[in-house]
Amino acid sequence: MGRLVVIEGLDGAGKRTLADALTAAFGERGLRVTRRAFPRYGQDIHADLVRDALHGRLGDLVDSVYGMAVLYALDRRAAAPALRADLLAHDVVLLDRYAASNAAYGAARLHQDARGEFVAWLRHLEIERFAVPVPDAHVLLRVPVEVAAHRAEQRESTEADRARDAYEIDNGLQARCAAVYDGLAADGWLAPWHVVDGATGVDVPALLARLGP
């Protein structure tokens, strides 16, 4: 059985770049690695509804914190059988965002912290009720909010399909989300968390040592 490793962080933190580096590093160790990213835009109807809502195409749906959280969770529920198959066939399954993103952004939108009602509700929904695979480790790619925002703006200007959504343009939300992520990491929510500095560059060998075999 493989290990489920999740990369979390703000929009623009550099999660995809870190995923590339970790994939290469795991491969150099002879480990079988596969990757997935959430939401699964273009692959799952729930994810596509999320994208439509975030870009204002579904009326006031985006205003419902719990409604959006259910869509994100249903995307993972639909992916659960494939994730379990991945874990049987690989040593490492590397995810760009997972349940912790849902917890962090929902709590931040409600001005709650990592120990608030929303995070407890979300854990019950995704882990207990939907029974999605539980991570073995999280990597929190921490960057200052202004750095993440600048990177997201640059990405929007250079990639035609990466227009920023309603969450990404809200710097106040991003700042509150960063605080919730810190709380989740401090509490070891669902699995151990490894916090790394994404502003100056991640020491990938050191991170691998922390993640273990």
CATH architecture assignment name:
3-Layer(aba) Sandwich
CATH class: Alpha Beta
Mean pLDDT: 91
Shape: globular
The proportion of residues in beta strands is 5-15%
**Helix and strand sequence:** EHEHHEHHEHHEH
Low-confidence stretches: none
CATH topology: Rossmann fold
Number of β-strand runs: 5
For the largest beta-sheet, the strand count, sense and barrel status come to: 5 strands, parallel
User: How many angstroms separate the termini?
Assistant: 12 Å
How large is the radius of gyration?
Answer: 16 Å
As a percent range, the share of helical residues equals 40-55%
Name the strands of the widest sheet in spatial order: 2-3-1-4-5
The count of domains is 1
Number of helices: 8
> Which structural class do the helices and strands define?
alpha/beta
Keywords: ATP-binding, Kinase, Nucleotide-binding, Transferase
InterPro entries: P-loop_NTPase (IPR027417), Thymidylate_kin-like_dom (IPR039430)
Protein name: Thymidylate kinase
Domain Thymidylate kinase-like: 7-159
Task: Report what the structure shows.
The protein has 213 residues and is α/β, with parallel strands linked by helices. The protein has a single domain (3-211), classed as Rossmann fold (3-Layer(aba) Sandwich). It is 53% helix and 13% strand. The chain has eight helices and five strands. The protein has helices spanning 15-28, 45-54, 65-89, 99-109, 117-129, 145-158, 171-187, 204-211, and strands at residues 3-8, 33-37, 92-96, 137-142, 193-197. Helix 2 (45-54) runs antiparallel to helix 3 (65-89) and helix 3 (65-89) packs antiparallel against helix 4. The model has no long low-confidence stretch (mean pLDDT 91).
